[in-house]
Amino acid sequence: MFEFFKKQPLHINIIIGLLLGSVWAYLSIVFGWNDFTTNWIAPFGTIFINLLKLIAVPLVLFSIISGVSHLSDASSLGRMGAKTIGFYLITTVFAVTVGLVVVNVVKPGAFADDNQRIVNRLSYELWVEDTEGVDYVDDQRFLSDPKYADFMTDAMDKYQEDISDAAVAEKVNQANNKEKGGPLDFVVDMVPSNIFVSFNKNLMLQIIVFALFFGISLIAVPKDKVQGVISFVNGANEVFIKMVELVMKAAPFFVFALLSGVLAKMAQTEQELFEIFKSLGVYALVVTFGLAFMVFVIYPLILSSLISKKTELSFVQAYKYFMKGIRPAQLLAFSTSSSAATLPVTMECVHENLGVDEEISSFVLPIGATVNMDGTSLYQAVAVIFLAQFHFIDLAISDQLIIILTATLASIGSAAVPSAGLIMLIVVLQSVNLNPFWIAIIFPIDRILDMCRTVVNVTGDATVSTMVAQTEGKLHYKI
Ligand code: ASP
């Protein structure tokens, strides 16, 4: 058995782990083994995520310092930074727009039963009437229409149910606390006052700022005085890269544990599982379609045209080169639902397989893992419009433009951990006067969509780092 796994490439073994994990989770739900799965299998998934996160922070620190210390001139850093942020913004806005187009064409919210949508609409109007500072988003008024009088009791129950969910109320509070503050707060938050606090709280942007500052100061000091520091940093960097390789050897098993644990938590019985997919199936398909479009069409298209122009490879070969190179990171993003946990592997794939110079990958990817979330922004756009459709609400073009803006900002503000995008969705819903408690509706299916959007987030980072490397002449194709 072990011989069989040894002979396969790692990504095949990870796929086998994923498949076995899904089958196991399904059996757990059907035969009632959920407790066993949660108590005895899922903890290994948690260990896996912990290990990856353990490596991520020091790896980012040492690789950025080491990258900067190899830099010939510090001015290229500013140019690289501007390009990175520019490309990241463009891809994010593009992703939101793809989401908006797909959800407006397919209209997943309109697939629900009309009676249910009327009740939903009435409960929305009750919420608007009750909530200070919130206005109607369209001109319809179901509340004053006698045609809908029969639905009122149900609507009132639904409204009470909506706003009495304590778990969601806590999330809404969290998101609202995040919203307060001045316009420059995000810049202030990027500069650490105590680097150990930043390590402790995993504040990636602060760690990046510190690493850049340290690296730039390092090259400003005469080499003979800091030779020891430089070799220590380079050596430590190598050790952390080795740790990634070692953890990845066990990844197929860990991925099995992670996925079976996560999926088994989704539903207690087969009936429950069926209900979730029945009511949210079309919405889930729309999100997945948009995300797949980014991963299989947009990113490879950008890169294949770039790669095939600069090398002997044909367009199709270049497509395969990119997809194959980034695959381990994609599979890991899917399993962990966390761009931060996947970061060490993304860095390895982009450098080792795609040939991006470490100077670029160590700088562009950690920033990307924190601020560039194309999948999250696409998902947020689809979710908001779906929820509006589900409540018989028509959003005007002006509202959709607000969604492009807030979904872009919200995805930048989302932490690179599971479910962060769902919490920031609250901000997007509020920006267009919709009820933030609606996140409870899509919650049951969120983890699976989180897995998919994290794949897009990571692929987007890899794409942009390859683009930056190409324009900087720092891409060494491995062919
Ligand atoms: N889990 C996502 C990530 O880490 C963020 C989100 O959309 O929830 O990239």
Instruction: Give a short account of the largest sheet.
Output: none
How many β-strand runs?
A: 0
End-to-end CA span: 33 Å
**Average pLDDT figure:** 88
> Strand share of the residues?
under 5%
Small molecules bound in the structure, each named once: aspartic acid
- Which term fits the overall shape? globular
Which ranges are low-confidence, i.e. pLDDT below 50, for 5 or more consecutive residues?
Answer: none
Give the fraction of residues assigned to helices: over 70%
Q: Determine Rg (CA atoms, Å).
A: 24 Å
Q: Which structural class fits the helix and strand makeup?
A: mainly alpha
- Quickly count the helices: 20
Along the chain, the helix and strand elements come as: HHHHHHHHHHHHHHHHHHHH
Overview of the structural elements:
With 479 residues, this protein is mainly alpha-helical. Helices cover 80% and strands 0% of the residues. It has helices at residues 2-7, 10-31, 34-69, 75-106, 114-130, 152-163, 166-179, 185-190, 195-200, 204-220, 223-249, 251-266, 270-310, 315-336, 339-353, 358-371, 374-390, 397-413, 420-431, 439-471. Bound molecules: aspartic acid. Residues 337-339, 373, 376, 414, 416-421, 450, 453-454, 457 line the site of aspartic acid (ASP).
